[in-house]
Amino acid sequence: MAPFRNLFIFLLPICLFVTLSSAADPFAFFNFEVSYITASPLGVPQQVIAINGKFPGPPINVTTNNNVVINVRNKLDESLLMHWSGVQQRRSSWQDGVLGTNCPIPPKWNWTYQFQVKDQIGSFFYFPSLHFQRASGGFGGIIINNRPIIPIPFATPDGDIVILIGDWYTRNHTALRKTLDDGKDLGMPHGVLINGKGPYRYNDTLVPDGIEHETIEVHPGKTYRIRVHNVGISTSLNFRIQNHNLLLAETEGSYTVQQNYTSLDIHVGQSYSFLVTMDQNASTDYYIVASARFVNESLWKRVTGVAILHYSNSKGKAAGPLPEAPNDEFDKTFSMNQARSIRWNVSASGARPNPQGSFRYGSINVTDVYVLQNKPPVSISGKQRTTLNGISFVNPSTPIRLADQFKLKGVYKLDFPTRPLTGPPKTETSVINGTYRGFMEIVLQNNDTKMQSYHMNGYAFFVVGMDYGEWTENSRGTYNKWDGIARSTIQVYPGAWTAILISLDNVGVWNIRTENLDSWYLGQETYVRVVNPEATNKTELPMPDNALFCGQLNKLQKPQDISSATPIMGGKLTMLFTLLTIFSTVISALR
Predict the structure, then answer these.
(1) Per-residue pLDDT reduced to its tens digit, 355-381
(2) Burial environment of residue 60 by CB neighbours within 10 A (0 to 12, 13 to 18, 19 or more)
(3) Which of 211, 347, 354, 490 could pair with 198 as two cysteines, CB 3.0-4.6 Å apart?
(4) How far apart are CA 135 and CA 520, in angstroms?
(5) Is the domain of 412 the same as that of 489?
(6) How remote is the C-alpha of 229 from its chain's centroid?
(7) Domain limits at 389?
């Protein structure tokens, strides 16, 4: 035993030194093997993207300020990037997992993401960001829990449930991608999945036999936190649970003023968490429904996901018609008023968007104003494209952040227009020049006939207004200047605008895009470049030592063979992981 004790005494200060020099906060380690499997979520065998053999992928469950290490092994036949939607990547756009910041992970390679969930709580999700891959899966939930010393603004729930909803095609992402490349529309989805499974057979005509459905088991009298994410392609979905109230508690990292809803519209890329109390009798099971919105609902009846809420003492199966969606076909303000009712709980404890005083956003002077307008798809050089302000974004072969790091010229233009261009649409790699510590107002103007939702990486923005028609300077008179919700994904109704405010305190290169996968794929995005002119490590972490190189920097990339490669974590982190493993072994031996 003496040698073990001596080794223990030797290793303890080393472990402490490396831990403290890396970060004072705990590490959470994950391994993701991304591969194809065959599944039949709508009764038709098809190729889907799995994480560790699971579709959908496993949840990432961590705590505020944890250092998250995820080794991703790409077993697909095409390149891959994983994006952590809503995770702000404070000071480290290097880990964001989009083409503006990262070179793709080639097939048969692995790459290790390392980031800190700094000053964040809430409900988010991850997904593959390249090649339309999200349409085939590869997504999963992210839970960031409060630290124990920070109270949550409601009683501790009896359980935590993740529900992933989304429209789905029985064609895989490569076939859907080809449809878009050929200038065609994707058409109506074949259904809606709930946690990767098709609908319960509530209707023998609409739902064929033999489809596996999701069942969520609960206990009577208990209250659960149910986190719902729309991970789909382009369809807004109305979420509801038969005979149960949805008490909205949080959305994308912000606690909300708690309000009951019988149903809520959840748009592509959005996340909400509800407190749901199991207060009904258990004579039967209950329907969980996610149905298509803002379409011809009589034609889109099959585009409905149905799962089962099963009480542990249930006496029978769910039967009868589904609970109805909002009957607002002739009232276009109903959903918008519902969206406006979602407000920030400004008195709740916990992490807030930085800077800490920015919850008084209504009194901060705006430094930059951008009106970003989208229109229906257009033809540019014979190809169907989508645009923002008349520009269809083209991702450069060398990521923008890498180009800055190596001072490469001509990779992108820092000239994105503040208003829509008046000339013909064009393809460009045009980027917004953000002012470090500035306060930017962005007006998202949807001049298409379809619902759009927009996401910005690196930030939670304040949603201060939305209305139908064209935005004007006078529209600011309608802004909510006190408790507009802070989030990262917001809807813009057809023929309407949404205004957001962003405190540009996070240095890096950050994607702003439509979450509608088809429009995103065709160019409806850009980046906001935020640079600290003093360029210190206090505002941006250095380039990771495992950075991949491509494009003009391709010659810097060393070859990697996954059969012999080990996870690339960087010198200090690798040492820490090794020492902690030995340390754990020693402790076990001493017991």
Answers:
(1) 444 468 888 899 999 999 999 999 999
(2) buried
(3) 211
(4) 12
(5) yes
(6) 8
(7) 356-530
**What is the C-alpha to C-alpha distance for residues 51 and 64, in angstroms, rounded to an integer?**
24
Helix intervals (H) in 432-568: 517-521
pLDDT (0 to 100) of residue 413: 97
In whole angstroms, give the CA distance from residue 293 to residue 237: 5
Domain harbouring 210, CATH code: 2.60.40.420
What is the total count of domains within the chain?
A: 2
pTM of the model: 0.92
Distance CA 439, CA 334 (A): 31
Residue position matching structure tokens 């809606």: 192
Question: Which CA distances in Å does 277 have to 196, 217, 247, 318?
Answer: 24, 13, 9, 18
Tell me the average pLDDT of the chain: 90
Q: Distance of alpha carbon 424 from its chain centroid, rounded?
A: 33
Higher pLDDT, 271 or 535: 271
- Cα of 429 vs its chain's centroid, Å: 23
* Residue that terminates a domain, selected from 530, 548, 566: 530
- The pair of structure tokens assigned to 213 is 């459905």
298: left (phi over 0), alpha (psi -120 to 50) or beta: alpha
Q: What is the CA radius of gyration of the chain?
A: 24
Per-position b or e across 22-50, b if 16+ CB within 10 A of its CB? beebebebbebebbbeebebbeeebbbbb
Specify whether 327 is located in the same domain as 403.
no
User: DSSP 3-state assignment of 572?
Assistant: helix
Query: Residue 24: what pLDDT?
Result: 80
- Cβ atoms within 10 Å, residue 65: 17
pLDDT on residue 329? 77
What's the half-sphere exposure (Cβ side, CA atoms, 13 Å) at 359? 16
CA end-to-end span of the chain, whole Å? 10
> Pick from 220, 197, 487: which is nearest to 342 by CA?
487
Residue 435: partners with Cβ closer than 8 Å, 6 or more residues away = 367, 368, 504, 530
Alpha-carbon separation of residue 444 from 38, 439, 475, 481 (angstroms): 39, 16, 13, 18
Whether the Cβ atoms of residue 529 and residue 509 lie closer than 8 Å to each other? yes
Q: Which helix (H) or strand (E) holds 527?
A: strand 525-531
| Claim to verify: residue 516 and residue 447 sit in the same structural domain | yes
Cα 56 versus chain centre, distance:
14
pLDDT of residue 354: 44
CA distance 21 to 375: 50
